[in-house]
TrEMBL record:
Any coiled-coil regions, as ranges: none
Family: Belongs to the short-chain dehydrogenases/reductases (SDR) family.
Protein name from the UniProt record: SDR family oxidoreductase
Organism, scientific name: Oceanospirillum sediminis
Annotated ranges, domain Ketoreductase: 5-185
InterPro entries: KR_dom (IPR057326), NAD(P)-bd_dom_sf (IPR036291), SDR_fam (IPR002347)
UniProt-listed Pfam families: adh_short_C2 (PF13561)
Family matches, as Gene3D superfamilies: NAD(P)-binding Rossmann-like Domain
Domain of life: Bacteria
Length: 251
């Protein structure tokens, strides 16, 4: 019987992060989830515990990826509880759409604080609790290689995390830590509503995606096989890989 793995997923109260947590719990793994809203974190944690065979499979941690003090507190708690991680899915992210000439310094700073600074310092803080070997999965975006109007800041933030991933693979090699990425295409999550899209906008988006080779908009569950593979021992030979899961949209 395979040994239970311990996997931490940031931003796991919705979207791809939540789908990941549900998958790994169904596989019998121990899952740590983070979120920045305590009420929502409690609600999602309870839902996941109801899915799990044992409540101990689910650990909820309040942590805003833009708040370095909360990141450090999370690390201290894991060390105090003697929790070791086999995999870390750095999923927490935001998308604030704006045309280039309308983009503000605040929008830029908020995006980079969560999408770039957050994953960087989360991994740094968690190094003391990472096993050898361990897998780090970055949730990047197809926006790194395909241009989208209103996504200049978002695209730059995702390119930035891929930029430091290669260096981390070299520097953390002696710790047995490997870093790889997935690049989701247009995927239906809460991010559309948070970005200010109306129901009509989302309906139009779905219709537009019917022209892709896949023939539909992507779902969060479409990301799970790739993330599960990268988090598993089967991916031990991969370093700095970027798996495009876009339904052929960037072709």
């Amino acid at each position: 019987m395979a040994q239970q793995k311990t996997i931490l997923i940031t931003g796991a109260t919705a979207g791809i992060g939540l789908a990941c947590a549900q998958h790994f719990i169904a596989q019998g793994e121990r899952v740590l989830i983070t979120g920045r809203n305590q009420e929502k974190l409690n609600r999602i944690s309870q839902q996941l515990k109801e899915q799990a065979e044992d409540d101990a499979q689910v650990i909820a941690l309040l942590c805003d990826s833009a708040d370095l003090s909360q990141i450090q507190s999370m690390s201290a708690k894991l060390q105090a509880d003697n929790i070791r991680l086999d995999a870390l899915v750095l999923n927490a992210g935001v998308f604030y759409p704006a045309l280039f000439h309308d983009s503000t310094e605040d929008l830029f700073d908020q995006t980079f604080a969560i999408n770039v600074k957050g994953p960087f310092f989360t991994l740094q803080a968690l190094l003391p609790v990472m096993n050898n070997p361990a897998s780090v999965v970055l949730v990047s975006s197809i926006a790194v290689r395909k241009a989208f109007a209103t996504a200049s800041v978002y695209s730059a933030s995702k390119a930035a995390i891929e930029g430091y991933a290669g260096v981390l693979n070299v520097e953390l090699a002696d710790r047995g830590i490997r870093v790889n990425s997935i690049r989701p295409g247009v995927t239906l999550t809460e991010i559309q509503h948070k970005a200010g899209m109306s129901e009509q906008d989302i309906s139009d988006l779905k219709n537009n995606m019917a022209d892709t080779p896949l023939g539909r908009v992507l779902a969060t569950t479409d990301m799970i096989p790739a993330i599960a593979y990268l988090a598993s021992d089967a991916s031990e030979g991969l370093r700095n890989a970027h798996l495009d899961i876009d339904g052929g949209f960037a072709l």
